[in-house]
Amino acid sequence: MKLLVVGGGGREHAIIKKLKENPSVETIYALPGNGGIAQDAVCIPEIGAKDLDKIVNFAKSHNIGFAVVAPDDPLALGCVDRLHEAGIPCFGPDAKAARIEASKVFSKNLMMKYGIPTARYATFTDMEEALDYLTTAPIPIVIKADGLALGKGVTIAMTRGEAARAVRAAMEDRVFGDSGNAIVIEEYLEGPEVSVLAFTDGTAIRPMVSSMDHKRAGDGDTGLNTGGMGTVAPNPYYTADVAQVCMDTIFLPTLAAMRAEGCPFKGCLYFGLMLTSDGPKVIEYNCRFGDPETQVVLPLLKTDLLTIMQAVENETLSDLDIEWSGGSAACVILASGGYPSHYEKGKAMTFPASLPANVALYHAGDKLDGQGRLVTSGGRVLGVTAVAPTLNEALADAYAAAETVDYEGKYLRRDIGRRALAAMEGQ
Ligand code: AMP
Ligand code: GLY
Q1: Pocket of ligand 1, beta carbon within 6 A
Q2: Alpha-carbon gap, residue 7 to 19, rounded angstroms
Q3: How far is the CA of 320 from the centre of ligand 2 (A)?
Q4: Residue 242 pLDDT > 90, yes or no?
Q5: Ligand 1 centroid from CA 144, angstroms
Q6: Please, are residues 227 and 365 in contact by the beta-carbon 8 Å criterion?
Q7: Residue 290 CA to ligand 2 centre (angstroms)
Q8: What is the position in ligand 1's atom list of the atom closest to the CA of 151?
Q9: What is the 3-state secondary structure (H, E, C) of 106-139?
Q10: What digits encode the pLDDT tens for the residues 318-351?
Q11: Is residue 148 helix, strand or coil?
Q12: β-strands 90-91, 66-69 pairing
């Protein structure tokens, strides 16, 4: 069978490597893919992830048997709806269901209506009303742009002045464009964060191994927010008891709510959770696999990924048992110096002749230059993942392998997993 994967980052590379394990897969096309993904798939750099017409035409003309739409933008734009109209089976939510990520006003109202635990909030489309609300709101407070904002639409404001500046940036300066036409102002929550990705066909749900992201650029969770500087799985805070509470109070109610709203969610639903003293609460939903969570979760998956994705599409997930390896995984992101602010591109990359069997490189931001050599082309360049029986070993192996890849300006956090290890010692 020929497969198509829409997207071109480390997450897509991890999905592609896993899909390739199925012997019935002949060719995987990545639209657009990237330089490193070209080692595992046929990349089509001319077709961007948002070029829906071109994606659908490509799928039809290349006899694609199954498509996976990974990034948020094409999902929100209706890529899955369009592929389905063209008769192509695919994995991912339709545009109506993707609103669970694409509109924070939608997702907050959904949680409120169906009693799903989340931070208390108010929504605004009028800037003066938002600023007025802030004069009496408790501090710290969280300001969120309604729409997709490349992960940059959230401000944790420690002062009223900072909160007001965030509101003005979104609604007056329009730094997020239309995504800031509406905003959510919500209560500040505290507690360990857990990411749970789950396969769901709208009714049945199969949570994957939990994970922990490291969003800030600097060691010790300092510096600017990034797309994610590293991940570990499983997340030690996510015990079996917590998982059961989440299933009963968050996961199943969310699926039921989406069905009741007439937009059942099929695909990978990402629950960004905070384990507060008052129980687990939803920080955010994503309508897709997380990046770089996928780079630690899928390497632990033992069941065939294509079989699972087809069961989601065919709504037969309840018939499937999904197996996970009992070990741990760690992913260290190699970034370009300066990321997430200004950074340079086009740096030649060097790789070791071979890698240990438990290590994988997931290419996120590189491309082939005129001579067929890999050069950096993005802020997050590469994810180095290691799988091992324990988290300690996985981290040691991921960091050792990270040393063997080089390019000018290579930047990485040195403390990925430290908090998870400390939590395990405390248990
Ligand atoms: P998001 O882009 O929605 O994932 O938010 C980015 C980060 O902001 C999250 O991973 C949390 O660390 C933090 N955050 C979001 N909402 C809240 C909240 N209500 N209270 C505290 N931290 C939050
Ligand atoms: N790692 C967070 C996300 O994918 O949104």
Answers
A1: 119, 142, 151, 154, 156, 186-189, 193, 215, 272, 283-284
A2: 15
A3: 27
A4: yes
A5: 9
A6: no
A7: 4
A8: 2
A9: HHHHHHHHHCCCECCEEEECCHHHHHHHHCCCCC
A10: 999 999 999 999 999 999 999 999 999 999 999 9
A11: coil
A12: parallel
Which residues approach ligand 2 with their CB closer than 6 A? Answer: 151, 213, 228, 286, 290-291, 293
CATH number at residue 51: 3.40.50.20
- The residue whose C-alpha atom lies closest to atom 5 belonging to ligand 2 is 290
How far from the centroid of its chain's Cα atoms is residue 72's Cα?
A: 9
Please report, for the domain that includes residue 418, its CATH number: 3.90.600.10
What's the token pair of residue 308? 């699972």
Greatest alpha-carbon span in the chain: 61
Q: Is residue 117 part of a domain?
A: no
Question: 335, 411 in Cβ contact below 8 A?
Answer: yes
Mean pLDDT across the stretch 28-56? 98
Domain that holds residue 31: 2-94
pLDDT reading at 210 higher than 90: yes
Are residue 168 and residue 199 in the same domain, yes or no? no
360-418 per-position pLDDT tens digit? 999 999 999 989 999 999 999 999 999 999 999 999 999 999 999 999 999 999 999 99
DSSP SS3 for 6:
strand
Q: What would the two tokens of residue 360 be?
A: 């994988």
CATH of the domain at 131: 3.30.1490
**DSSP 8-state secondary structure symbol assigned to residue 158:** S
Distance 215 CA to ligand 2 centre (A): 9
Given 319, 350, 367, the domain boundary residue is 319
CA distance 301 to 322: 8
The torsion angles phi and psi of 321, rounded to 5 degrees, stand at: -95, 130
Which amino acid appears at position 77 of this protein?
A: L
Q: How many domains does the chain have?
A: 4
Ligand number nearest CA of 270 is 2
The answer to whether residues 295 and 344 belong to one domain is no
Nearest-CA residue for atom 14 of ligand 1: 283
Q: Looking at the structure, do residues 303 and 336 belong to the same domain, yes or no? A: no
Q: Distance from the CA of 314 to the center of ligand 1, in angstroms?
A: 34
Ligand found nearest the CA of 151:
1
The values of phi and psi at residue 79, to 5°, are: -60, -40
Residue for token pair 């199925």: 22
- Is this prediction's pTM over 0.85? yes
